[in-house]
Each structure stands twice: as C-alpha cells, then as structure tokens.
Design a protein that fits this description.
The chain is an alpha+beta fold and 297 residues long. Helices cover 16% and strands 32% of the residues. Strands 1, 2, 3, 4, 5, 6, 7, 8, 11, 12, 14 and 17 form a 12-stranded mixed β-sheet that branches. β2 and β3 form a beta hairpin. The radius of gyration is 19 Å and the shape is globular.
C-alpha cells in the first residue's frame, strides 16, 4: 500500500490518502481520527483498516466518494513535519566511503560501527518543492539518494532479529548537503541541516508491500544524467544492524525516520567537483517506492 499526504486543490488542508492507480482515496474524508494524518495512522496502528477501506474503494471504482484524481492533488512530504530530527547513517556504502577518502587524499578506512547524525524537521520538503541553493552560505551543495525507514511502533534495545516488527514502511530521501560547511565545522550536522535540504517522498510504501528492502535498486540523476546507481544489498551495515545499534539505550518512536546511507557518485567526489547549480533538476528513484524530483532554486 502506498500512502501519501496531500492537499486537494485549491484547498490548503492536509489529507491522508492511499494511491490507487491514477487516483488517491482520501482517508481523512472518512472523519476517523486515526486518519487525520500520517503520524496519527502510524501511532494508531491503523494500517489494516486503511487497507480495507482502500480496497473497498477500488472495488467500487471511480464513483466512490473520496476518490480524487492524482492530477487534482499536490503531494506533500509523507510526514510533512516529523516529530523530531531525522536519524541518518553516514558512510554506509563501500564505494561512497572510497570516493570520499579519495577526494580528500586520505587512506581508506571503513567504519566499524554505523555512524549516526541527524537532520532537523525544518529540512523536510516534498517532491516538486524547490531545494534552496543557499547561495552565500554554501558553495558546494550536493545530493545523496537514500532509502529511508519509517518506524511503526516504539521500541528500545531492539534485537536485529526483530527489526522488521518495528518498521512501518519505506520512502525515498535525498540528503542534500553543503559539503564545504560539513568540512568547515568538522562534523555533519551543520552542512546537512540547512532548511529545505531533505526532500522526502513521494509516498510511504508499507512494509508488507516490499518483499526484501535489502534488494532494491536505487538511482539518482541530475538533469537526466545518471550520477548514482546501486542496490540496497551493497550497504555496509544492513537494516537490522542499523535499527539494533540505533535503538541501544534509546527509544525509537512511531513515526521516526531513518535514512540509511548513500552510494557512490556524489558531486563533490567527481573530477572536477560538480556541485548543484540553480535550475538543476534532481531525480531520485527507488524500486517499488517511486520517484522524488526537485529543482534547485
């Protein structure tokens, strides 16, 4: 099931919906409190109820109340305002680690443990939104396609063997980064915390719809040029390990988002470097989830 947060033109009110082919079934229009938002659905554990309503709507067809053509809606980020910072994993694909060390003239050293940082809620934007260039603040704006996990229920000290019991679903995330800020401050948070630097979407695909999230192709293009292409099987630390390590002594809560790292092909590691420029169109795609597209402005 593909879940989206959207507005119905010309209204600005946010709605929760299920994508059904070329339409969206408006769950919020049912008036049920668990369908007020994506976070309310996740926290209520109302996936089965949403699925039943969507399947009933599919069976009735175009005449069902609450079925809205996709062309008549504007998609927002699936969780437009996360309750807290987005958790991120750095250096989680060998080729990306290699290109980073090479670009800085350093000897390769693979991480022994997942390397965590975070992006604040103010970074989140939707597919179709403009990514700020932040001219005068950074001169080396870069991209990173990532598979993101959405947590489905609270948990702490989660064993790797149980990781999937805590997953609600998956989405596409672009970890936009000011590389020069990252180096200047000698840590990741500032360079990755700029407003509008975390496009997420277009939807959340529920966990039951993805047979193996560790076998998904992903790619990123800038103005139609393929820059990144990999498979989630190439992660250094797999999803069970990420959730196990992150949850040690720290509660993961329903609705939390975890970005799982990016493959090689980032702009700063190219020769010469290729930072994002005003007007560039960045397209991210993950198999089974969908396409996230934003322009730099």
């Amino acid at each position: 099931m593909k879940l989206v947060t959207f507005v119905r033109k010309p209204s600005a009110d946010q709605h929760l919906g299920v994508v059904l082919d070329d339409a969206v079934f408006d769950l919020t229009a049912t008036g049920k409190p668990e369908f007020e938002s994506m976070l309310s659905l996740i926290r209520a554990g109302a996936v089965d109820a949403a699925k039943a309503l969507a399947e009933a709507a599919r069976g009735v067809g175009s005449g069902v109340p609450g079925l809205v053509p996709l062309e008549d809606v504007t998609l927002l980020a699936p969780i437009p305002r996360p309750a807290k910072n987005i958790f991120c994993v750095g250096r989680n694909y060998i080729d990306h680690v290699t290109e980073g060390y090479k670009a800085r003239g350093l000897d390769l050293k693979l991480p022994e443990f997942p390397q965590f940082f975070s992006k604040p809620p103010t970074t989140v934007i939707a597919t179709g939104d403009t990514i700020p260039l932040h001219e005068g603040i950074t001169n080396l704006l870069d991209y990173e396609i990532e598979l993101a996990i959405v947590i489905g229920r609270d948990g702490r000290d989660i064993p790797a063997a149980d990781w999937r019991k805590y997953v609600f679903g998956y989405t596409v995330l672009n970890d936009i980064t000011g590389r020069d800020l990252q180096r200047r401050h000698d840590q990741w948070f500032k360079g990755k915390g700029l407003d509008g630097s975390c496009p997420i979407g277009p939807c959340i695909v529920t966990d039951d719809a993805i047979a193996d999230p560790q076998k998904l192709d992903l790619w990123l293009e800038v103005n139609g040029e393929r820059r990144q292409a990999a498979n989630t099987s190439q992660m250094i630390f797999d999803l069970p390990r990420i959730i196990e390590d992150l949850s040690r002594g720290m509660t993961l809560e329903a609705g939390d988002i975890i970005a799982t790292g990016t493959p090689s092909g980032v702009g700063y590691a190219m020769t010469p470097p290729h930072p994002l420029q005003r007007g560039d169109l960045v397209t991210c795609h993950i198999e089974g989830i969908g396409t996230l597209q934003n322009r730099i402005g």
